[in-house]
Design brief:
single chain; two-stranded antiparallel sheet; mainly alpha; 1% strand; 589 residues
Amino acid sequence: MLISVCLAAVVFIIYSPVHKFSFISFDDHTYAAYNPHVKSPLSFETLRWAFTSKDTGNWHPLTWLSLTLDYQLFKNWAGGYHLVNVFYHILNTIILFYLFKYMTNLLWASFFIAGAFALHPMHVESVAWIAERKDVLSAFFWLLTMLAYVKYVKNIGQTHGSAPTKFYIASLALFALGLMAKPMLVTLPFVLLLIDYWPLERKLNIFSAKLKFKGLRLPRLSADSLAMTEKSLERQSDLFASNVLIEKIPFFILSIVSSVITFIVQDKHGAMSLGHSVSLIMRIYNAVVSYAIYIWKMIWPAKLAILYPHPVDAISRQQVMLSGILLIVIIVSIIILRKHKFFAVGCLWFMGTLVPVIGIVQVGSQAYADRYTYIPYIGLFVIAAFTARKFLSAGKCVLFSIIILAAWSIASANQIGKWKNDETVFTNALANTKNNHVILGNYINYLIDRNRTDEAIAQSYVLLKMKPDSYQAHCNLGAILFQAGKMQEAREHFELAVKYKPDLAQGYYNLALVARNEGDFSQAISYCNQAIKLQSDYTAAYVCLGMTYSDSNNINEAVKVLKRGLEIEPGNSMLKNELEIALRKYETK
């Protein structure tokens, strides 16, 4: 209990500044701040949306419901959402500690694994980023699934009645919930097989029983009887091994179903568009290099960023060769060190749980990501803990823990400060990465919103030089020129934006603003309708469309459009105001 309290206290102290942090415009607005469904009252309609939504290119209804509940509690206070993430991280740390203590009965090793999980700087992204609620929430169910599964295994043959079955069903149900929080949990059945091998050593128990039997002197048994008994034990061993696999079948079925749903949703959302343009061999190269980078960043977590841009075709052969050699060394080491089972389990845990996000199937524009290590790093922490335990004295193990965890705590505290707001997140990423046009585009948006026009213009030209076909850069520069009253130039950049990204709802909305400003109401209406067609919940486009209808004296259509917008976002003040104006015009008409 004391260890749990200490772990919880340290995590809370280090992460306590987040209650003052803001929403990050990079995904937080989509997941919470500006999402009308999340901000709607909890109802059957909200539940239906959560289970059918393709927003963000992921199927994670439990994550949506979690964030919806947050809004009911905290409204627009970002700190509340942040603290819920911290709460889940604390729970995950404590569950992880008890899980390994329960499996291994080793206090120090379990403490180090949990402490490293709690304090490693690479995990800051998962905790300090509201949009990564799916990480901490899914990990919560991942660890509970493992705990229930271990209880099931420990109760086999030791209790009468339905206790083992209850734990098995509980583990399966928790796994299903975890998949509904984040589909990355599809690798969990493989991890259950790993812990069967070590530390549970399920098959080893049978062989041990057989060996002990062979060592007994049983004069009353004939040689034939002894041989028959040994064969019976071998059959039991084979049957036991088969049962270990058979009991995983429902888990694998759930993983397959989740994988299919996720693939369909991501493909329809366009999240896999980069993967379609990058060759398979380059995706494999990036995966190999990413494994090496993850290992290095576990040891030396420096130059962290919210987004590491995918190199596409700019990966050097030297990087690939060195990273490939490292992976070969790891595989060979697993074979050589097979007597040290923790090493094989730790390596395979790390490498296996990264498979869904390692980039063979490319989703998003990142080469790799800090958040992807939230569960996989547990494997590396296992290797560190049990290697130290094997080769160091108890006193040196304690000293090792203090030094490592203290260093990671300091680094995490520093990294947490980088998540305070848009400016700190984006400037940190731009300082630690190269050619990061996605983050630069978001930083320009931030500058525009703060009326830092000169900086925004300068950064826009940097972005266009970096990526001439960047729809985001054209959209941003057009917005600045629009604010400056340069309508023709603004129109040119907005047209280029939709040329490079034909499904860019914001581009058509911006063109509608230009047309409306120039008094071309019919063109403005056309552009607004195109924006809404591309993004049905684009409330700003409903406002613009309603105002345009109203200004062109088509009051009936104005009222219809504005009411439709309020159905999507009932609390939108601009929609309400424009509807009141339109209704007054209707009454005086």
